[in-house]
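[step 3/7] inverse_fold.run input=structure_tokens len=735
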């Protein structure tokens, strides 16, 4: 349709139809036609359903075609619905969780996998995807850290933009086959709940918000994301869905977003619960004023906007603007010409879980694993060794993250399957060793127990010890149940379940050659694991090809190359701990047991157990001192910093060289270092390569004392190395 036709359509619509466009119904509110029990309970009628503009969480080409056909035929102006869903890390071909994706430091791979997810989801009828999540995260107690790519604004921005490109295509042409509209979330600051407790209050200074939290959202907006979702939390004590400054001034005004703004699930209703609206009517008024276009899964707009318009509290022009944005998005998706878009049962058959998609999932998983420790080259394993694979993840198909509900666990390759696929003749044994969660604890969520979870913990432990005592090496497959991360999954204790730690201790008594492979969606407290294990590989929640990927990495067909994008705390008391903190007036570097009046703890070190950017591989690298082509420069010019990297080990391998910069003095305090670039090198044993980073004035900008985004002349340190603790440094000056 031409935009004049959209305007003409708008002018013909009744107020009820307009409000309908701003109402999104969840799948369980209707049977495809009529309102069901849960909808009726909150006053949603068949008439409301008839004019609803979009629907959440229905999939399947045949089903969506039928619902759409029915909807169009009954809608007074035959306006098609938009079908939206959460396709977070894959649709049916489930990829590693986003936090694991970040550890690849490979946004190109994230883009490729997002495009695969879009191809599968669109074949199944989806038009809009509630991804990417660009929330910066620093607190592993928060269960939703799994949905983020980590603690760094720059890296998060690269990944968020890459995902938008993957979903929407390089030209943002949403009519293109296999592409869908991307919805950035959760605007803003949802990743910083106090105490790591989901939905909790967020306290960020405007400077921290602008400098650390907004850039990744901005990167997705610049990439052209078609929608943005409001966050549940408050900022400056104002819930986002009622925050006019945040939505109209910052998001639309400063960032230039002109797409559809949708609330998070029932977040308009929650304006009342938060206590900034005295009732749903005032909630509707606040949200409209703030510029929220679509009300997801709450009765606030559909039940109250009409009266607000009639009383003049909300001008029709404001409603028209919102409706126009929704209709424009439908038009961008081509729905007026083709309301079914790419929904196709044939394509579903051909595309979903096809070999190419599975291969991408396997590659992504392999590249996301992070090797945290590997003493005496315990890894890689040899297929001639007698290896006991023990633990609740040894033969467990719950390897997909909590947001993988369109995937089927039956499609998932377990560790046992993966190893036997690779070496059908290997001398391997497999046993669960202990339950996945401590006995007596009920897992709240969708899937309670893995299929092979033992019912008798004592005999499971005995079997494990007997196998471990006979093996050359033991691989312990431990970790958190997948329902322990995701939404509503905050935890105060982030160590492994007691039964798993007991298994580790008992196995250690009979066999010291232990590799611990860890699964889960958050950084864990690994102090005890580090003490007992010779080797530690963090495998996250790797998705449906997890078992095959792990077999390839454990046996050395592939080398692990992931780098942490969230610091692993020493213990919970250290949280939040992140690499780009401020220096303070009393920084501390020494022994915490020997000095006192410094910014430190008296009982633990300041450093995390494993820092941001950290990750080993099967070979070793050295990095020369940094050479600068000049050490003084001005805006418009650039400095080039070069290091020589050498593979000092005996296997071919890859490294991710990281560039960090520190501004030594600013008009406001500056972080001790910030990631500004990274490059990957692959080298043969003894091989060497020069790696050069370019430093420009733009990379040195920040929000100054007057809140202007600018650089300030002065001295800087740069660091180049293999993680955020790299000490290899040089100094330069910006004139
Ligand atoms: C989550 C969003 C999600 C939405 C729709 C909410 O509970 O916070 O991330 O997109 O539900 O499922
Ligand atoms: C303390 C102050 C104290 C001052 C003089 C500082 O280290 O922070 O509270 O008044 O020493 O003793």
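[step 3/7] decode complete -> sequence:
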């Amino acid at each position: 349709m031409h935009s004049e036709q959209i305007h003409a359509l708008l002018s013909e619509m009744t107020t009820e139809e307009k409000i309908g466009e701003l109402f999104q119904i969840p799948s369980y509110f209707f049977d495809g036609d009529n309102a069901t029990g849960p909808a009726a309970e909150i006053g949603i009628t068949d008439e409301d359903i008839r004019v609803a503009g979009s629907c959440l969480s229905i999939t399947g080409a045949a089903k969506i075609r039928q619902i759409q056909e029915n909807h169009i035929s009954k809608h007074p102006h035959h306006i098609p619905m938009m079908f939206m869903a959460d396709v977070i890390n894959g649709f049916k071909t489930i990829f590693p969780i986003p936090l694991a994706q970040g550890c690849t430091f490979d946004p190109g791979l994230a883009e490729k996998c997002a495009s695969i997810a879009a191809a599968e989801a669109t074949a199944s009828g989806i038009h809009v995807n509630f991804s990417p999540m660009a929330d910066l995260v620093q607190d592993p107690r928060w269960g939703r850290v799994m949905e983020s790519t980590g603690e760094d604004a720059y890296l998060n921005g690269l990944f968020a933009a890459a995902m938008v490109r993957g979903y929407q295509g390089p030209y943002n042409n949403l009519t293109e086959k296999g592409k869908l509209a991307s919805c950035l979330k959760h605007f803003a600051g949802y990743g910083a709940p106090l105490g790591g407790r989901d939905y909790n209050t967020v306290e960020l200074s405007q400077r921290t918000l602008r400098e650390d939290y907004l850039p990744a959202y901005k990167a997705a907006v610049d990439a052209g994301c078609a929608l943005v979702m409001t966050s549940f939390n408050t900022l400056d004590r104002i819930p986002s869905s009622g925050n006019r400054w945040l939505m109209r001034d910052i998001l639309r005004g400063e960032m230039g977003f002109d797409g559809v703004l949708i609330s998070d699930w029932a977040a308009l209703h929650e304006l009342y619960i938060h206590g900034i609206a005295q009732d749903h009517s005032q909630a509707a008024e606040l949200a409209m004023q703030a510029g929220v276009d679509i009300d997801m899964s709450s009765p606030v707009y559909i039940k109250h906007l009409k009266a607000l318009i009639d009383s003049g509290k909300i001008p029709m022009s404001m409603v028209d603007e919102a409706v126009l944005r929704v209709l424009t998005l439908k038009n961008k998706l081509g729905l007026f010409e083709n309301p079914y878009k790419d929904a196709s049962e044939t394509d579903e058959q051909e595309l979903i879980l096809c070999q190419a998609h599975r291969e991408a999932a396997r590659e992504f998983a392999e590249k996301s694993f992070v090797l945290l420790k590997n003493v005496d080259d315990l890894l890689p394993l040899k297929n001639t060794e007698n290896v006991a694979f023990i633990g609740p993840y040894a033969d467990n198909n719950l390897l997909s993250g909590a947001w993988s509900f369109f995937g089927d666990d039956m499609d998932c390759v377990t560790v046992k399957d993966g190893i036997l696929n690779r070496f059908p003749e290997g001398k391997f044994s497999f046993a669960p060793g202990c339950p996945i969660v401590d006995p007596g604890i009920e897992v709240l969520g969708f899937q309670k127990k893995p299929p092979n979870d033992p019912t008798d913990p004592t005999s499971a432990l005995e079997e494990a010890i007997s196998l471990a005592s006979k093996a050359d090496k033991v691989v312990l497959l431990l970790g958190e149940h997948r329902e322990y991360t995701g939404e509503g999954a905050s935890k105060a204790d982030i160590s492994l379940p007691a039964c798993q730690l007991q298994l580790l201790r008992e196995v250690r008594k009979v066999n010291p050659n232990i590799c611990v492979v860890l699964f889960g969606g958050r950084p864990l407290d690994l102090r005890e694991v580090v003490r007992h294990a010779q080797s530690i590989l963090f495998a996250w929640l790797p998705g449906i090809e997890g078992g095959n990927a792990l077999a390839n990495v454990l046996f050395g067909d592939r080398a692990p190359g992931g780098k942490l994008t969230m610091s692993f705390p020493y213990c919970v008391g250290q949280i939040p701990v992140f690499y780009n903190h401020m220096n303070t007036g009393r920084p501390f570097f020494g022994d915490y047991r020997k000095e006192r009046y410094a910014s430190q703890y008296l009982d633990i070190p300041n450093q995390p157990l494993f820092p941001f950017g950290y990750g080993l591989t099967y070979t070793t690298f050295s990095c020369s001192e940094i050479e600068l082509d000049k050490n003084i420069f001005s805006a418009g010019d650039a400095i080039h910093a070069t290091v020589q990297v050498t593979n000092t080990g005996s296997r071919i391998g890859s490294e991710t060289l990281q560039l960090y910069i520190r501004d030594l003095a600013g008009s406001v305090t500056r972080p001790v270092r910030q990631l500004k670039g990274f490059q990957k090198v692959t080298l043969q044993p003894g091989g060497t390569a020069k790696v050069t980073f370019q430093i420009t004035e733009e990379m040195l900008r920040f929000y100054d004392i007057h809140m202007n985004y600018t650089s300030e002349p002065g001295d800087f340190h740069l660091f180049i190395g293999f993680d955020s603790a790299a000490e290899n440094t040089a100094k330069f000056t910006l004139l």
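[step 4/7] annotate
The two ends are 54 Å apart (CA to CA).
The longest strand covers residues 653-663.
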